[in-house]
UniProtKB/TrEMBL annotation, chains A, B:
Keywords: Lyase, Thiamine pyrophosphate. Its EC number is 4.1.2.-. It is an enzyme of class 4 (lyase). This is Probable phosphoketolase. The keyword Lyase applies.
Amino acid sequence: MDDDRIARLDAWWRAANYLSVGQIYLLANPLLREPLHPEHVKPRLLGHFGTVPGLNLVYAHVNRLIQERDLDALYIAGPGHGGPGMVANAWLDGTYSELYPDVTRDEGGMARLFRQFSFPGGIPSHAAPETPGSIHEGGELGYSLSHAYGAAFDNPDLTVVCVIGDGEAETGPLATAWHSNKFLDPVSDGTVLPILHLNGWKIANPTVLARIPDDELLDLMRGYGHDPLLIEFTADDDHADVHRRFASVMDEAADRIAAIRAAARDGAVERPRWPMIILRSPKGWTGPAVVDGLPVEGTWRSHQVPLTGAREDAGHLRQLEEWLRSYRPDELFGADGEPAPDIDGLVPSGDKRMSASPHANAGLVRQDLDLPDPRDFAVQVDDPGTDDASATAVLGSYLAEVMRRNPRTFRLFGPDETASNRLAPAVYEVTDKQWKAKTTELDEHLARAGRVMEVLSEHQCQGWLEGYLLTGRHGVFTSYEAFVHIVDSMFNQHAKWLEASKEVAWRAPIASLNYLLSSHVWRQDHNGFTHQDPGFIDVALNKSADIVRVYLPFDANTLLRTYDHCLRSVDEINVVVAGKQPQPQWLSMDAAVEHCARGLGVLEWAGTEREGREADVVLAAAGDVPTIEVLAAASILRKEVPDLAVRVVNVVDLMRLQSGSEHPHGLSDDDFDAVFTADRPIIFAYHGYPWLIHRLAYRRRGHDNLHVRGYKEKGTTTTPFDMVMLNDLDRFRLAADALGRLPDGEREHAALIEDLLDRRRRAKEYTREHGEDDPAISGWRWGGVSGEGARWAAR
Amino acid sequence: MDDDRIARLDAWWRAANYLSVGQIYLLANPLLREPLHPEHVKPRLLGHFGTVPGLNLVYAHVNRLIQERDLDALYIAGPGHGGPGMVANAWLDGTYSELYPDVTRDEGGMARLFRQFSFPGGIPSHAAPETPGSIHEGGELGYSLSHAYGAAFDNPDLTVVCVIGDGEAETGPLATAWHSNKFLDPVSDGTVLPILHLNGWKIANPTVLARIPDDELLDLMRGYGHDPLLIEFTADDDHADVHRRFASVMDEAADRIAAIRAAARDGAVERPRWPMIILRSPKGWTGPAVVDGLPVEGTWRSHQVPLTGAREDAGHLRQLEEWLRSYRPDELFGADGEPAPDIDGLVPSGDKRMSASPHANAGLVRQDLDLPDPRDFAVQVDDPGTDDASATAVLGSYLAEVMRRNPRTFRLFGPDETASNRLAPAVYEVTDKQWKAKTTELDEHLARAGRVMEVLSEHQCQGWLEGYLLTGRHGVFTSYEAFVHIVDSMFNQHAKWLEASKEVAWRAPIASLNYLLSSHVWRQDHNGFTHQDPGFIDVALNKSADIVRVYLPFDANTLLRTYDHCLRSVDEINVVVAGKQPQPQWLSMDAAVEHCARGLGVLEWAGTEREGREADVVLAAAGDVPTIEVLAAASILRKEVPDLAVRVVNVVDLMRLQSGSEHPHGLSDDDFDAVFTADRPIIFAYHGYPWLIHRLAYRRRGHDNLHVRGYKEKGTTTTPFDMVMLNDLDRFRLAADALGRLPDGEREHAALIEDLLDRRRRAKEYTREHGEDDPAISGWRWGGVSGEGARWAAR
């Protein structure tokens, strides 16, 4: 390593550190052309310095590797609090000024760079959507390594350098993300180089991994299947020596990676032990060693702002100035504030700059999927409710064709449930599950490379998919409905990322994140109460209406049409809930396309409205099981009260219920009334927690007439019809509700209501006695509603 | 190991396996007194067999250890799907019949035991609250090991045997839970013996840990700080040999544990490497090897029900009968179906039976906390709004005293935020953070034993606390409000556990799970958008009203009173949101007690109602920051429109807004109207997402007049007052809202409304220019509202 290269590395490091400190502290006097005065210092000192010097050191050294080895590299900063560092590096390599032309690469631009940081109307304190080169925010910790692997899938030429803070390393999601190496194909996927950055401290505590012996730490990394390289720096180390030693470790890692990739291309089949680096360095490195008599550098006290009184306290101000000048800014920046030649010499060319990587502005990379016509997979429905099909199995055939046509840009992620959710066998006729650990002759559908990613960690599934989408590809996450709550917070953070990205002019749209929540609340026959929770929709709807869509297709064709729409959308999160069990099919493909285009509508064949007479009562449903019960209730009313004008409504796009002023999919009040009426009783059978419908519709004219049934947290291991009875969502209860809500209905229909509730009681008794539902009552084509389908003309 | 003991172990194992299979399959003929006929088989075959034989093997062998070493042991079955096994063991040791007298320990009881499993009206398929000896459900996987450590804290005589499935081991929470051993004190805490049960398969896939080489797996466990013992069994192994070898491993582990504990009691200070066992055994062990020509035993096909056609398919029925008879039931059960003497010989005495452990029926162990009088910690408030205090700092002094008085039964859990949330320094005057990894001279408040548990994993915090509560102790979990979403699903599962427990007659109440959500959405000055999410309340309110309570105390004294209440409550989950920043104080302790007892109320000193005249408009608030803005808005209106009768309402107990028919804390409609009026405009400033208030109050008479402001997902790193402005929750907007909603108010008060919005614009401009809020506008005692406090008589 010659001195020139060391000088360049050190200049970059000092410059990036200087610019980071400047962002946290300075309102003016960015180059210290004059002595530092209180008015140069920001009134509110916000930000996090502790992790920044380590992040900047890595950045400089990856730049060298890019130059020397012509790498295509992406940088993921797990410590999101290192935001000022990532911004500093992007400014140094010129990307920042290209994307934000007012933040020029000179003294004036530097002043704007400093001022805007954590400043009202400026930029946030994290590596955020506003940060060039970032696909990872890291405000909430735990997902950097999953994101890194997601970025590497199907990107064989990409090296993802992922710095993991030792705080983040304590989280569960990060602790299991190390195992991602069992799912990476060294031929068709890229490389992840994890750098575990042990700076020893969290906000107020030491970190666990910094306080176990080296041999234990190395065992841990070997146990995770890695080949660890350990390097340690202290505050006393000579910086030239730091660069020399760190460059040597980075070269060693790069050499081992190259060897692994070459061997894999030559046909090596064993899972490689990829290198990873353990970097021990002081927290707040190069910052003030002692403040007010207390040690700061190398302790948790440097986590945020090491000198908190710089504006009020003359001693702190002087110490801040010394600290800034210790980086020797005069050597680093020219007369106009532009970076010195040493720094320029370490800037990779064009798109090779990590801040300019097209992978990190994924919209530039993303290509529309080549999608088949969903009609080619449609279920034939001549007569509603006569034939059964599994909606997800039908979708599986469609997704298989999506994979066939898009062999490098589409993946399916899920926690061991692709088969259970009936997307298999179809998808396995096209692809396999990617798996790089040991295989045996008993295994099925495991392969070195495949489109299906299964691991029993919802965090991993979501993190991988996010990384995959954020680097320009497409995918679907299938999950048990109840357990998708495991990633509530990841959903929240991704929604926030998308929301913030919309305000960033240079970020092009990325593919939407698509959920398929099958194995839903109503069909947990094997599993019971713990597996019953439809509340993810409620979590999703707290996020911006610009981002969130919720669909409840009620049969195979509406599911196909919904997914065709979702896979074409961008910058959204689509929550799709659909059952996997064989169930009656209702809409032909033509009808499904029309119904889904409207998002909701009257099922005329199911109701008993007569021309010229408005409905007496509306039975509405959202979700596959509620729709069956509503249709059965309508069928009962048709038989028992033939004069009654019943309207049956189905809602696929839940956002239609909101007002157009609140959600882009929302209906106008007049359109809403045209479907639901303004003044007739509405009995609404909803898939999830009933109050959600009120939350969406509380401003509607007819809201006072709206009576919602849904899941009210009653459940156990029991039969499907017992489940709907437990939650008052069954056909008998719904029919009784409808009658009871008619004017004078309770009196006029008293005998029938009593009869309905008695049929309910008998159904329950039968189930308790026989352990299965009475075939004469439950199901669809059975018993009381048998053959109805034939009398309803298909649309 | 003599043959007698082996015979006993094998008899127990066969009997437990037999009873497990019987539960999954049989409706009648429990002892196979006659040949098996289709009508003996359940119509719906539900349950999971795959993991059961391993769980039963461990159970038998722990029984031996208990007998031979007089252990006090608790069994946690990570694979919740092993429910039939846990029920079988509880029946064998007699506990089941003691707790459920109709399920006698004879043939009739066995028939009932079989029938009820996964049967409508019966018991669920998991180790559940209904299962004797269980504190862990495991429907959602990942938390067994955290629960085990939580159970061990402060239980020095307890050994928690924790079986971890290799599916569960892939989850993030479990992957980091191994590090719990850095937080366990071998003197004052108990022992956890993790048994990683590798049966190799999930639903449809191999497991990661079963498919890495032994040396990697051992490295991993050593890296986690454990001393692993590996043992492997195959389907071909002789069962006597199995018992001999497994007993030897269990003895080895028990010996090492005893040595560690003895050394620790003798003063050894180094963190011990606790033993753990890796148990490789076939999935579906002892079940059918091949079904319909496909391998089943030792594959994923034995995950649930190995023979699915036993009622319809004569071949399956015959195979089922052979399988059941392979356990030789005639040797295992006597003439009346009672367990044979060999089995009885392996039953530990009384409470030593794991199914009868009082630790697992925690209400029997729980003692009320010795609580101080919160008045002793109250802030003096003579005049509302004149002095500042940090509510959480005041609470910290109170919690410190709680710890002083309850040195063995109360702990505080949090992800590195006790200091940041200002509970320190007070709590560290009484106790320390428990930490068993290396320490340095820079560390503060770390100790071998302490009442504060900090690790950067919300999953660990929640899991430890749940385990601690479920074994009869008390605690509080403090978290950033946004990041408590990380444990949404754990919250859901714990709520379901409590809900189901209420239906189990023999389960005594346990202490409530108390959250303290500080560092909330409105004060993320350092952190910005990623740290802003008040939606946990929405998640919480989807669970049963019997369980969930939400409190938003708005100053120190209301927080004290709230926590005094929470720490006395049982079987609930209390979500308490309170800011940590120094803020004005409003209520004296007397007033706070009265206000909190009602849960909400009119702040008469803040309004301008006159006697005999109802309010013209109601300004309501829930949350500390919204209350400040409402009080400031009321102050503005008092000055600008002196004739206007403004009522100011504050809500601490959010559940008061619901109807009494929906929540036990709910107000009657008349009481609601007495506070909010039935017909006047209500401007409601809410801490969280605004639609939640509509969801709670949509049936109230005055709902059409209710106008809610709250967090609408607008945020970044900015000033506190800019944050409320971004979300239209600021005093100017609220005052303008109030005026605009008066009859003809928009016209009558047009000039003032315009002036208010102009003050808002100027406030925003000031902030954007100076990077801090205009001291003349924002804050509380400043500017427009200065000195108001003095004119409001303290109650």
